[in-house]
């Protein structure tokens, strides 16, 4: 995927609505594996497809000219199929894998220019990873596994155990502190991995497909846990997944990758409602639109006394939630922001979103 196909990708660091700088800022990042890999970025071969690049040069561009910002407190999801480059990308952020070219900073500090000590500080204190396969120490108890990162930091035994006990309670593992990983279920083991990352109080949590090996019900529980923790702490999170429903559920914004590049970057609503190309369109084809599209997108201007009478919802409410309100009230539903009615959704508008057509237009 060439850089020209990237959608909604920033050219320079963007500040959030409150004026704060991004936590991670990535510009033109490449990771190429193969002979003379550093010659690929910026060359004519950089525009080749993945298959042509391998055939002509013997190189694989796992991450290809990627740019994005992650804002403070954001859940930024990177998703794509196996081999799309998402796991390589998240490892490049802390240089567990060394990027081939590009720019990368955290809080304005150049990550690629960090020496060993600063890089060690980044990995120990500022960004913590939650892996798919847990990575627990089998001979240690839950409490000591959770405290392991603090031990690496040099925190005293009493202090780190006290902190670990707090985090164990936070992730719902109270009563299991003395058990070993082999005595836990898959979901419980993943909670230990999450608690270990939280214990070091990182600025950013990096999740590399952490729930893909779990059963569907346990996965849903863990997704709820991430949502709850984010709601309570507001911690910045970067979440890697191949599961679209998981991405839509967790992400404030989603970067959809293919062949190492970002095909589209936007909110869940933007991606479902306005796919950038046929690849994205095929991805979101089976998504229940009413569970993602909000009433702000579906509303029309109020007419007559519609602005003052009837049930109301907030602009960020999904169409699915508004359908329930409309079914109970039996009439149009006001969309109210603050104390002002900014629009109305009626049965026709709501059903149009479900059907994927414009209101008033009958599909052929």
From TrEMBL:
Q: Which InterPro entries match?
A: AAA+_ATPase, ABC_osmolyte_uptake_ATP-bind, ABC_transporter-like_ATP-bd, ABC_transporter-like_CS, Gly-betaine_transp_ATP-bd, P-loop_NTPase
UniProt cross-references to CDD domains, sorted A to Z: ABC_Pro_Gly_Betaine
Any Pfam family: ABC_tran
What range(s) does the ABC transporter domain occupy? 48-284
Does this entry carry the keyword ATP-binding?
yes
Sequence segments annotated as region (Disordered) = 1-20
Compositional bias (Polar residues) spans?
1-10
Q: Name the NCBIfam families for this protein.
A: proV (TIGR01186)
Q: What is the lineage of its organism?
A: Bacteria, Bacillati, Actinomycetota, Actinomycetes, Kitasatosporales
What name appears for this protein in its UniProt entry?
Answer: Glycine betaine/L-proline ABC transporter ATP-binding protein
Annotated organism of origin: Streptomyces coffeae
Q: What keywords sit in the KW lines?
A: ATP-binding, Nucleotide-binding, Transport
